Target: Methylthioribose kinase
Amino acid sequence: MVDYIAFDSTQALEYVKNQTNFFAPDAELTCYEFGDGNLNLVFRIHDQQQHSVILKQALPYARCVGESWPLTLDRARIEASVLIRHGEVCAQTTVKVLHRNDTLAITVLEDLGHMHILRGQLCQGHTYPNLAIDVADYLAKTSFYHSDFYLSPAQKKALVKEFTNPELCAITEDLFFDDPYHRSERNNYPNELQPHVTALQNNSNLKLAVAELKAKFLSSPQSLLHGDVHTGSIFVDQTNTKLIDPEFGFFGPIGFDLGSFIGNLLLNYCAQHKRAVELPKRRDLHAYLLNSIQTCVAQFEKTWLQLAKTQTRDLALQAPGYAERFINQVLRDAYGFCGTELIRRTIGLAHVADIDGIENLRARVEVQQQTLLLGEQLILQAPQCDTKEDLSQLLLSLLL
Ligand SMILES: Nc1ncnc2c1ncn2[C@@H]1O[C@H](COP(=O)(O)OP(=O)(O)O)[C@@H](O)[C@H]1O
Ligand SMILES: CSC[C@H]1O[C@H](OP(=O)(O)O)[C@H](O)[C@@H]1O
Model:
């Protein structure tokens, strides 16, 4: 067995040439690294006929920080395994794994280069008609089929063990639930925002509500999550949607993935206020984003309940009304987690291009104030909402 080494482009090319059979033996191959995420290397290897594959390799540290932030290579095993499992229940929206090598922390993936990363597209004002339904379908199927409703207790427990992901979960625990609410060296925001950050960090009701959400994240192994459903982890075109990058996957609260997704749509919604977008176009984008959130939540709930009605295997969980009660709580959780995504992307370590791309400082700070306030109110008020209609009303009232 070859020990781990971090590849350069030549080594990535040699690996694909010698250890896989994607290309003919005499193919003339080219390789380059183009990863732009926070954590890993991403290489594209292609021949002269436009056939290509992606080789993703984990580094023993977080790429965005460097060797001072060591990070487990096991994340490559988690990522490939989540993709395979999610692909088994929702192939249409999951990037295909073509090859894996857990020792080298390598996953070879289908190349989605003909599609686009959603975040950049939304920033440019492009819209995708199937996005909301596709993401809802992915979230409903992947979460239902890995939950206690479907798996036997023994299967579920074995999977919870297989997908224990302590180091990556610790990043989420720190960045979502701790750093923004305390002084932390990792926090990152302009001085102009300090009064708002101070108010947020002194809000004891907010901290209590965040504690509830963190406790849920720490100890609710409801299903196998993607763990990082932001708009930079979604490839889109006018017909298809593909999720990538589930290295933060673990058994956690189902609402976390849905909340992260709608949080990222809302970050873009708020940023559109200050982009150089003319009013009619901005209204259209806002309507599209709001409609996508509502459609995604409604479709997620509908698909989940249909699956629960027809495919629940656990006897007690078949009790009439239980699935409805369960999914209602998942939606409340989702809006709360959505609030934590809004806040951590505004003042925490990892920002989003939607906001950071606004060049004018005053305009950017105004958007940051809005995302902080929206996040705060969602976290505080979602637990009081009884139905998805109440949650939707809450969101609409906060966006007025
Ligand atoms: N299957 C793929 N096809 C094409 N490009 C990809 C693929 N997977 C990743 N990429 C590119 O690499 C970038 C970083 O990938 P990502 O999985 O998000 O890395 P990280 O884990 O470091 O965040 C993506 O933004 C995208 O541009
Ligand atoms: C130091 S990890 C910060 C942040 O990065 C991850 O996103 P990605 O790897 O897709 O860029 C994840 O959201 C983490 O919270």
Notes: The chain is about 50% helix and 10% strand. The longest strand covers residues 40-46. The domain at 9-110 is CATH 3.30.200.20 (Phosphorylase Kinase; domain 1). The mean pLDDT is 97.
